[in-house]
Amino acid sequence: MSSHTQIRRREFLATGAIAAAAPYFVSSRALAAAPGKPGANDRLTLGFIDLRLQNAVAAVGKKVAAGNKSGTATACAAYRDFRELLARTDIDAVVISTPDHWHAIPSILAARAKKHVYCEKPLSLTIAESRAMVNAARENNITFQTGSQQRTEFGGHFRKAVEYVRSGRIGKVKTVRIGVGAPPKACDLAAEPTPKGVDWDLWNGPSPERAFHHVLCPVDVHNHYPAFRLYREYAGGMLADIGAHHFDIAQWALDKDGTGPVEVHPPETGDSGLRFVYADGVEMFHGGPSGCTFEGTEGSIYVDRKGIESTPKSILETPLGEKDFHLPQIGSNHKQNWLDCIKNGGLPVADVEIGARTAQICQLANIGYQLRRPLKWNPVKEEFPGDSEANALRSRENRSPWNNI
To answer: Of 46, 187, 225, 242, which residue is 20 to 30 A from 279 by alpha carbon distance?
Structure first.
């Protein structure tokens, strides 16, 4: 369930993406390069905690061999348990690219082992997990980046939207509409025989015990989009899968990276239309065109991965001036930003606190859809005031032996 290799900082994007970008196939082992100490200041030793052994071994071997004049690759050792990887003193940082229900535990244990963390979004499965991840990172003084790449990539469209909204170009923001998918449902899949080579008990991990099903853990991962995301035992639905990107941009543009809404109003029926209310009166809706739509007193801005546009068009046609709001420059891409912060200090653009708050937006929405009644939320205490039923949904009991982390 883990992988490790030593690479130059600027090789991370190429090697890391290959080793951990599609982490859905479960094997009983994991990848690690031969032990060794970190090199010079421009080198980090990275471990990869993911669910793809064969492809990771082949990809890393090919990459290393290509960089060697001899055309040979460094021998690899294999680990079934990611905790063995975290126990190695020669590893500086880890990349966690597992299904959502396996984000919190490796992140917390990695932080306790003083290893920097890059974790895929959505950051956590529950509200309690996200706060525990923040606490672990802060207590151990590690650099923790959430994989919210829209903050750095996709042509800069999202950064531009944030700068224009926060510069007041659409006037006072009144509403935000986030067009993403539906909330999750309880897993009702039938039992199937566990395929050879799949450690289903480890894949299921802290989630409630249930039988294998190929929809959750497809053997033909390269030809299938895993649907574990649809079930609340493992993920937050498509609402959280893409919402972790778009709600993140909304929080950023509203300058609310360290807080959240104070009210949650779900519809009586249906899988969209839930409304958040922030303390300043801004309303944010789950539903609308794909991406993010910001509506203000003087116009609107729509942004998605394909581009950005405004109504009226003159809003975006007028360049920002020196006195307008400008985001700091953060490097060439999301992973590089993480590596730069490890080396130079400072918080990455999608620091763990930011990732936690964005994950909580998705979790609040899902709790709202599950309970189907208005909710009050205290973003400082991270609780539903006087609401024991809702507060019980902030966390869950992990399955043994993962319930004592």
So the answer is: 242
**What are 296-319's pLDDT values in tens digits?**
999 999 999 999 999 999 999 999
Spell out where 263-306 has E strands. Answer: 263-265, 275-277, 283-296, 299-304
Q: Write out the CATH class of domain 3-150.
A: alpha beta
Using the predicted structure, report yes or no on whether residue 109 has a pLDDT greater than 90. yes
Structure tokens at 17: 């993406």
All residues at 6 or more sequence positions from 390 whose CB lies less than 8 Å from its CB, including other chains: 367, 371, 375, 384
SS3 193: coil
Angle at 203 (CA atoms; ends 200, 207), nearest 5 degrees:
105
State the DSSP H helix or E strand holding residue 171, giving kind and residue range, or none if neither. Answer: none
Return the CATH number of 151-183+237-394, one of 2.50.20, 3.30.420, 1.10.10, 3.30.360.
Answer: 3.30.360
Classify 63 as helix, strand or coil.
helix
Q: What count of other Cβ atoms lies within 10 Å of the Cβ of residue 39?
A: 12
